[in-house]
Amino acid sequence: MISFKDVSKHYPNGTTAVDRLNLELPEGGITVLVGSSGCGKTTTLRMVNRMVEPSSGTVSVAGRDVLAADAAELRRGIGYVIQQAGLFPHRTILDNIATVPLLLGWGRRKARARAAELLELVGLPSDSGKRYPHQLSGGQQQRVGVARALAADPPVLLMDEPFGAVDPVVRTQLQNELLRLQSELRKTVVFVTHDIDEAVRLGDRIAIFRTGGHLVQCAPPAELLASPADDFVAGFLGAERGLKLLSLSTLADLPQEPAPADGDRWRLVTSERGEPLGWRDTEGPEGDRAPLLPVRALRDGDSLLTALDESLASPAGLVARVDADGVLTGVTGRERIHEFAGRRHAEAGRAAARKNATEAEADEASQAAAAHAEADDEGTPASDPSVTA
Amino acid sequence: MIELLKDLLRWLTSGSQWSGTDGIATRLLEHLQYSLLATLVAAAIALPVGLLIGHTGRGAFLAINLSGFGRALPTVGLVTLVFLASGLSMWPVYISLVALAVPVIVTNTYAGMAAVDPEVRDAARGQGMRWYQVLFQVELPLALPLIMTGLRLACVQVVATATIAAYVSFGGLGRYVFDGLAQRDLVQVLGGAVLVGVLAIALDLALAGVQRLLFRNRPPRAHAH
């Protein structure tokens, strides 16, 4: 677990990058730090592996103050991925991945063997190990960056806008890969981005920073979307909060109905194997020869946002659902999706309200304690409840 | 003109001219000795300075300006000055040759270090390399093409300037130039000049070969810097 206690970072020129940050990052989860540029999110991340040292306060990893450790040794135990991958251009891919194992003195053979394993883990062909970074695409370089960070199997992974420089299609792929890896490895991940959609997609928890290094709110994505702490957070989350919340649920939670039978206006035409081919308007002037309107069949793993989108595009307002083999299993109507979405929204809102209520009580208690402490010692600054996560 | 070239060719190819204690072979070896020793000493001084400035990013302004000053020093003037101070010895020659080579090597080394992508340096530190590991495993290999260019440049300049050894009565190929001038023997002057030029080009090509051999696995990007 990583924890920040009253951590501030001031620079000699007078700017404050991080201002009295209190934050606990749970073990085995992805915490995403978001905010516009200059909000201190990258500084916060870099204080974990001491690339930046705090001006005051304590950053600890697994209960140990990072300043107490030797910086180089600390960093070898923490995976670090940066935006342009930062690969060593004069070393082969395999040697790039083997960097930390070699620094730890594993020996060349063992380090290379481990690097080859990782190449496979991040989905790169094994012959790419002999190549040089400039011979790889941006997306592939970024995979190598992740492999290098994971090489010595560190419990903590720091990712500083790792997918910021690749195109949207590749970014989505890399995000999926990260979620797949995370489901296997369960690392404690700190992920910095300015893209709120990426944060919602990847984060178990999202911490939103405001310019000047203030943490405004830290909560699971559903809670954040249902109940933003203030206008700044609401503005940052954007106008489509309800839709983003839908992206967090999958179609698996919704029941299916049989596909429309003969007699209904719209008929779902399938192949012999049962794969949906398109919608046919049986009441149109052309009857059974009418051209098929396109259908995008969805699986249980697709998000409700995708389902809602498809239900709008579908002429009958129905989403065609298929199993893993692409065979039609049933349909789900627009109303069902709406109804479920409304329920999800209400639940998330209630959960957030409950949490806020308990926190308010805790705050009152801690303020009372602080007031008590101040009575004993006039010099002790009161804790600022607005930055307590 | 044709006569002159014929005489020059005869001078350069006659066997008697090449042999003996003041033959071309001896002078060539002396010249090589002055040049290589001066370049090596200059490299020993300039490389650590350039690497340190490049690694820390500190003192660059001072170093670049000192280098500019060093380059502006007239070598003949420096030789005369040190000669007057130290008397008849090889010191004036070596000191001025080293003073000529150091700025070239420092600026190129610094330029090579400055061209290393800050993201790569950051990544190296972030993976847990200590300062000397960052320097020797990442920065130095990446800066090496430019550092080599600096060494080549310095070497060529030193070879061309080592003729001044003869100015203070020592050997080397400058002997022919200064003696020829004194004796109004144009062929001898030209012969010495041609030999100096050929030696400089040969050394440069040899170092270029070494450079190509060292970096044949390099991405083209690193060469371009």
Automatic annotation (TrEMBL), chain A:
Instruction: Tell me which residues make up the ABC transporter domain.
Output: 2-237
For this UniProt record, give its keywords in alphabetical order, as a comma-separated list: ATP-binding, Nucleotide-binding, Transport
Disordered: region residues = 342-389
Please give the Pfam families that the UniProt record associates with this protein: ABC_tran
Do you know which InterPro entries this protein is assigned to? Answer: AAA+_ATPase (IPR003593), ABC_transporter-like_ATP-bd (IPR003439), ABC_transporter-like_CS (IPR017871)
Q: List the molecular function annotations (GO) for this entry.
A: ATP binding
> What protein family is recorded?
Belongs to the ABC transporter superfamily.
Kindly give the PANTHER family that the UniProt entry links to this protein: OSMOPROTECTANT IMPORT ATP-BINDING PROTEIN OSMV (PTHR43117)
Its name, as the record gives it, is: ABC transporter ATP-binding protein
TrEMBL record, chain B:
GO terms for biological process, alphabetical: glycine betaine transport; transmembrane transport
State the annotated membrane topology for this chain. Answer: Multi-pass membrane protein
One cellular component GO annotation, for this chain's record?
Answer: plasma membrane
Organism in which the protein naturally occurs: Streptomyces violaceusniger (strain Tu 4113)
Matching PROSITE patterns: ABC_TM1
Query: Per UniProt, which keywords does this protein have?
Result: Membrane, Transmembrane, Transmembrane helix, Transport
The listed locations are: Cell membrane; Membrane
Identify the taxonomic lineage of the organism of origin: Bacteria, Bacillati, Actinomycetota, Actinomycetes, Kitasatosporales
Tell me what this protein is called. ABC-type transporter, integral membrane subunit
Cite the InterPro entries for this sequence: ABC_transp_perm/SBD (IPR051204), MetI-like (IPR000515), MetI-like_sf (IPR035906)
Recorded hits in Pfam families, A to Z, give: BPD_transp_1 (PF00528)
What family does the database annotate? Belongs to the binding-protein-dependent transport system permease family.
**Domain ABC transmembrane type-1 residues, every copy:** 28-207
Please list every transmembrane segment annotated in the UniProt record, as residue ranges. 34-54, 60-84, 91-111, 158-178, 190-210
> Has UniProt tagged this entry with the keyword Oxidoreductase?
no
Recorded superkingdom: Bacteria
Gene3D superfamilies in alphabetical order: MetI-like
